[in-house]
Amino acid sequence: MPYKQLDQDSVIEYIKSVPEMKQVFSSFDNLNVSEIGDGNLNFVYNVTNNEKPKETVIVKQAVPFLRIVGESWPLPKERMNFEIMALQHAAKYCPALVPEIYHASHEMCLIIMQNLTDHKVIRGEIIQGKYFPRLAEDTSTYMAENLFHTTDWFLDHKTKKELVGKFINVDLCKITEDFVFTNPYEKSDTNSFNPELTQENIDFIQKDSELKLAVAEMKYKFMNNAEALLHGDLHIGSIMANEDETYVIDPEFAFFGPIGFDIGAFIGNLIMAYFSHEHRQKLLGNEPYQYRKWLLDTVEATWELFEQKFDKLWADHQEKENLPYWQYEGGKEAAAEQRKRFIRKIFSDTVGFAACKMMRRILGLAKVADIADIEDLKERARIERMTLKMGKQMVINRDSYSSIQELTALAKELSPLV
Amino acid sequence: MPYKQLDQDSVIEYIKSVPEMKQVFSSFDNLNVSEIGDGNLNFVYNVTNNEKPKETVIVKQAVPFLRIVGESWPLPKERMNFEIMALQHAAKYCPALVPEIYHASHEMCLIIMQNLTDHKVIRGEIIQGKYFPRLAEDTSTYMAENLFHTTDWFLDHKTKKELVGKFINVDLCKITEDFVFTNPYEKSDTNSFNPELTQENIDFIQKDSELKLAVAEMKYKFMNNAEALLHGDLHIGSIMANEDETYVIDPEFAFFGPIGFDIGAFIGNLIMAYFSHEHRQKLLGNEPYQYRKWLLDTVEATWELFEQKFDKLWADHQEKENLPYWQYEGGKEAAAEQRKRFIRKIFSDTVGFAACKMMRRILGLAKVADIADIEDLKERARIERMTLKMGKQMVINRDSYSSIQELTALAKELSPLV
Question: Which residues form the Aminoglycoside phosphotransferase domain (chains A, B) (predicted)?
């Protein structure tokens, strides 16, 4: 079927034409369609059987332009292919942590998938102070499973290289290159600031050579290290969850990049949430301690669980492979040392990428509601300044943190956990 | 034209069918064909007009197997595409340093190019103690031009990524992964040794954990850092030269990899030549000093000229681009610091890769004639041991050399320049 942009009516016709939909819907006679896209990139339809509301799917279609701007900003609709391929890949290693795919069409740049009716995007929930007891456990599993199983440690040389080629994601990588690693650190029309930030606050980032050299190194790493298949945009707006389940969604930025980028995105977002709740918990009428402690505990647990799980997957694989390379007296210990050094390097990258993800949310185009929606602009600026300060220290000193606790200690130094 | 394996007769028919050949040959009536392939991978024909010997071309065709073994070892003939693309790419930036391409056919996996009648493959010549006064100058130009112009520092994000995809060279990278980074460092049927090497000499490499961790890191870097378009096999058997001109040939291993790999291949080969001439110069009846000094001078000059040229290309490009990112007080100095740090990292990689290229030539399948053809096996083993010793120190300590002179000093420590 050649590409055609669907609307509220034609989406029903399309649903009817897809054989797999007969497994989901007992009848097509009374389907309700509502467009629920957040409006940035794609059209997202919720299609539900009015008579049996449990019969429901999400239809997500890419259009050949940036939806938020309109047809004047072309963006290849083929970006949906990356989301399809990445979801299919994740379904192999952690099916419980990604929405089930019912149907995908590369021609139509469209995917029909499980409607997560009992789950919410966690950013909004975290802003409200909701706890997600499984967040560290599930996110670390998602990352360890997806990342390990797409490295050269696991894949054979041919499969890996062919996947790297299939996942060359020019346009969406460019968005990250510009909006995470470039524009926020320079004078750029795409930036926007809280007016309560001073020029000095901005220069603190944009005119500091050590910081800029460090950010440029992270950008180079992002562009040149095809280590593993990343989600590519793993902030807390890409996770839907409730108390019992966690789903990672929207992997359209997927490509082969440095492992630390995904982990850093997630951890950086939690640190910003921690800062924001210095203010928000008071607004909510709570003592800030408990929720903010949970946020930092989640940062620590995410890294520690990721580290354990990645190492375990790799160690088990090493044992199964039993490579001749490590078959000598002391070889087993050396193989363990290899894992240790490699994970140490992932940690440095994680800290560096988390820092870039934090600073860009203050000075760049795309904000996080956690901080940007704070109405008291002076209070918001205070939190923005601590975010910038932490980001700067992190990216410059990324190789010198020896544990995740040193990172959370820095957060507590800037914003005491009381 | 669909693929067909050419032979001595059909190569003439093919030549006649190629329009461009009318520019080379004034007549097709008296062509002489001789097969001159070294027998490893491809068929290489020298086609010359008997009446006018200056009318001559090289026809190189890949066959769908490893020629040295036969049809039982399949190797995709499409590998020739990488050579074609790499030669065409190099012709853009250093046309004087690669053979001119007259005709290339992706279907026939074939290239017709300039016959370098006045030039010889330099390995054999260096074994004979010949000087190549332009070697450092030209090789450093070849590397700086080709490498710089395929990095993200020069190419736009889209061109770079698309080129990375086009140059995914699964099969030939696998040869390097196995024979440069794996088999020589483990018990492997593909290895072969000088019988005068002791088990202790072999264990010195194969059972040393620090060395093996370092080699594994270099292998990972080779497989995961798509920095620039490499030649991929830049040893002194891939260079043809005379006193006035230098040509780099045979880039069929081309792919996007770490910059230091090409430089390391070349420098590692010269260091082995230096060691071999401790013995060879005496055989040739010379005082060893002068020629061996030239070899080490060439090592030093190659790195220093590469460093200067790469930095100059980049600095000029930075000035032309004048990125907003560096537009602030101190930004120009920071951009210079970026170049310095980056080149420092290339140097570490160069040392590490040179080391792997050296050690594998002693313990692995493919030898270098410089050392392996030394008839006195005890003398050969002595030189092999110094090569292994130097390689081991280099790869383990690759981050701690601060100049190329420290590297040549190490060579002189192991084999005094007297």
Answer: 77-272
